């Protein structure tokens, strides 16, 4: 029983790290302002719960979420990271 539990913990730990590593960077369509690169790996140090309420799950990013709920709101609150349009949007 103990070996099975240890094996299960190892599988879950490996799967979680493999999932996170596979999701290092994203690129979003930024409309007429240009694409927005999101360095997921750089943000992981904040902890998953900062963006993913609870367990890591996919976050649907759209203009409202990026500007008013997550990205810009957090960058302004922390006084870190890009905050202007051209800081994120690249043509």
Short description:
With 91 residues, this protein is an alpha+beta fold. The chain has helices at 2-22, 40-43, 63-69, 71-78, 85-88; strands at 25-28, 35-39, 89-90. It has a three-stranded antiparallel beta sheet with strand order 1-2-3.
Can you identify the CATH superfamily?
Cytochrome C3
Content of β-strand: 5-15%
Give the overall silhouette.
Answer: globular
Average pLDDT taken over every residue? 80
Second CATH tier, the architecture: Alpha-Beta Complex
Helix content: 40-55%
Q: How does this structure look, described?
A:
The chain has a single domain, classed as Cytochrome C3 (Alpha-Beta Complex), CATH 3.90.10.10. It is built from five helices and three strands. α3 (63-69) runs parallel beside α4. The protein has 91 residues and is α+β, with helices and mostly antiparallel strands.
């Amino acid at each position: 029983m103990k070996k099975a539990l240890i094996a299960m913990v190892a599988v879950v730990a490996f799967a979680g790290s493999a999932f996170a590593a596979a999701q290092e960077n994203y690129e979003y369509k930024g409309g007429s302002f240009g694409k927005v690169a999101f360095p997921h790996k750089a943000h992981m140090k904040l902890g998953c719960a900062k963006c993913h309420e609870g367990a890591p799950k996919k976050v649907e990013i759209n203009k409202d979420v990026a500007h008013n709920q997550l990205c810009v709101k957090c960058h302004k609150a922390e006084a870190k990271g890009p905050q202007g349009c051209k800081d994120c949007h690249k043509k």
